[in-house]
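Field: sequence (string)
Field: structure_tokens (string)

Example rows 1 and 2, in order.
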Amino acid sequence: MSNPIGSLAGRASAVAALLLTMSVSAFAQREPLPQAPEHGEFLSRYDFIMSAAALSNNDPRFSWDTHWAGELDLVDYKYGRMTFLGDYQAILGEEFRAFDPYQSNYRLEASGSVRAGKTEFVGVFNHLSRHLGDRPKTEAVAENSLGLRVLRRWEDNGRQLDLRMDLRKVTAKAYMDYNVLGEFETTLRMPLSPRTALYGTIYANGATVDDTVPDRKNQYGGRAEIGVRLKGTGGVMELYGGTERMYDADPLERIVATWPFVGFRVRTH
């Protein structure tokens, strides 16, 4: 079934119903802290995120991209922090029914950082496990990676510019053929009022591959997103749209998928 761009507005109106039946949230963005605390703190920060984005795509396996994520700073020792991230991604299609749970991906991450002025250097251990939803899959699809992340935030008259760069070596893998993973993300926020702001995010990622798949080249993907942030008493809602290119979009079929999207995200800050 095709999903034309004109149907996105109708899908967006169904998001509330989707949330009543599914647990979804957006990827944690691993934001830098504006400043370090004056002394060590336990459970100093948390961010819980929930999101759903409607995808305009001709493949009936890809209709919604949904997330539930939580990120905790377990300990902030002033000169850095120890952080844990858990993210569950459900990709929904329309092959057999509306909101068909085609794919489930789990990401767990532990990290520890050191601050150097306004820059934060982070050692990261990341685990990703990919699964088909209600379809048979006998082969494990997963990878562990270890590497370095750099975080930096610039602020000027209420405007914020965040930068994140990752470089990780794959240390263990099943079915996947990745060797080195790289990520780049930058987000600009511009306030319109004390409770509203515009923002834009550019994200790029890539993977070098081994020789287990003949004639397969290194993989590249990315995402561009613009939206508005609405700040409430207990959290933030983001309404956004953009476009994405995802390599290895299917856990077992090594395909590239590209789609525009519109969605929303609710988070604690």
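Row 2 begins here:
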Amino acid sequence: MVAFPVVMLIVYGSKDGFGIYRLLGIALGIDNLIGWFRGFSSIGYTSHLWTLSYEIQVYLVIPFAFVAYKTMPRKTFLLILLGIFLYSAVARAVMFASGAKLQVTYTTPFLRPDSVLAGLALYILRPKWSVWLSMAAAVVSLAIILSLPLPWHSQVASAISYPMIAVFSAAVADIALRSRTAGLLLSIRPLPFLGEISFGLYVYHLLAISYARDLLIYLAGRNLSVSTSVIDFMMLLATTVLISVAMAATSYVAFERPFLKFKKRFEVVSGR
């Protein structure tokens, strides 16, 4: 999370001279808030790392949410989650109408908490309904998502897309947890390995896209037409995946795994 942007800053520099402040934002878990004012282009190939700050901020709230959940009736807690869910939809509509930048709405936890709320609700409800119902919810919500404009192009889409993405994600998670067939498919040998190196896949993928594009342009002797040519797009996708996996696996073995060993020194309760 921190080492990669440090390397990118050293190798490529900062386009606007704001790179060191963006680096501090990443390290302190406030990168998404910095993006309100300056965007995320100060350090090359790291524009996606704001999501880690979003994640860290959610983790800071989760313990308080857990305490609230344990001290009040379950129905009351679910109603509070529903209230926050409705508030965020209205707040997004207001922000859109006021002409707020994409960075503000898209990167702020209290304006886009839908998927987090859906995850909490999934844990609390512990669904007993048929997995087929979750499959239907996944199909319907995905159809709605694909039928709408991008959230930042329409006020209606801004209000509806994020809740539908939350429903789709929760439905897929429920299917993965409760469907025996899905469990068997997700246990096929390469997939757990990709899960182990998934953080590296996430961190390095923009750089991998750049490397893959440059490699294919060099080999083909022409620019790629990924927006109009299915073949070019699939070649770029496949090459990007291969490069991403190679980078992430190398990083995991040489850099991440030694750090993961430190966790045992700080464990209070061993995992079950």
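free_text_note (row 2): Residues 190-266 form one domain.
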